[in-house]
Amino acid sequence: MTAERGRGAAGKAAEALGSAAGPDLESAFGAADPTGEPRLADRAYAALEELIVTAALPPGSLWSEALLSERIGIGRTPVREALQRLASDHLVVLLRRHGIRVSDVLVPEQLLVLDTRRELERLVSVSAARRASGAERQSHRQAALQLRAVGEARDVLRYLRVHFALKRFTCACARNPFAARALSPLHALSRRFFYVHRDRFGDLMDVAAVHADLAEAIGRGDAGAAAAASDAMTGLAVDFTRRIILD
């Protein structure tokens, strides 16, 4: 994705959010991803990633290529290509002559994911604060309000979808396709980890507030505040992950 293409995708998401009624962040920020009709392999990847992230394909479970193809209604050739990508993203393990195993959810691995995310999230947040258009900054300010509303509703599953949809939008606004590409699989791993352990969340209002602070900083174009909020957000995720070890 070029910087120009990223600007167009993010602009579409900003327009969608501006016209959306209510906290429909998922559909608005969904416009930030591909432009045009996705290839079958991309559709297969998105469908399988969603099933893995939401544990509809449970960690450690074994599947065949044929079963997965039937499950999502897409042919085996694009599914095979999607599985290669999912394997490189550490979401599945391809077993020679034994099919596909969904990777396990491991706390030590998640801590390594967060170590990497800390640096990349800060870079993307600062870049988005500096490079986002006026409409995109307004979208971040609106997103902050809606994140707080989702937190108050204490809807964990919707919060996770909204939060990571906003992450994709912020990556597009940062105009750095290399950072965005590096973050994408890390976000998928994190989203699955938090989904699996969602019953251990603390007060969702507090969690949402930290992420809303980041969106507001980007919305103001305040790079320093965005960096601080990004680190606070990652720190909160690290604390949550470490609590799971102690429980």
Characterise this structure.
With 247 residues, the protein is mostly helical. The chain folds into two domains: 3-34 and 106-246, GntR ligand-binding domain-like (Four Helix Bundle (Hemerythrin (Met), subunit A), Up-down Bundle); 40-102, Orthogonal Bundle (Arc Repressor Mutant, subunit A), CATH 1.10.10.10. It is built from eleven helices and three strands; from the N terminus they run αααβααββαααααα. It has helices at residues 3-19, 25-30, 40-53, 65-72, 76-88, 107-131, 134-153, 156-174, 177-196, 204-220, 223-246, and strands at residues 62-63, 92-95, 99-102. A three-stranded antiparallel beta sheet has the order 1-3-2. Helix 6 (107-131) runs antiparallel to helix 11 (223-246). It is globular, with a radius of gyration of 18 Å. The N and C termini lie far apart (42 Å). The model is unreliable at 1-7, 14-23 and 30-35 (pLDDT under 50).
Name its key features.
247 residues, mainly alpha, Four Helix Bundle (Hemerythrin (Met), subunit A), 11 helices, 3 strands, 74% helix
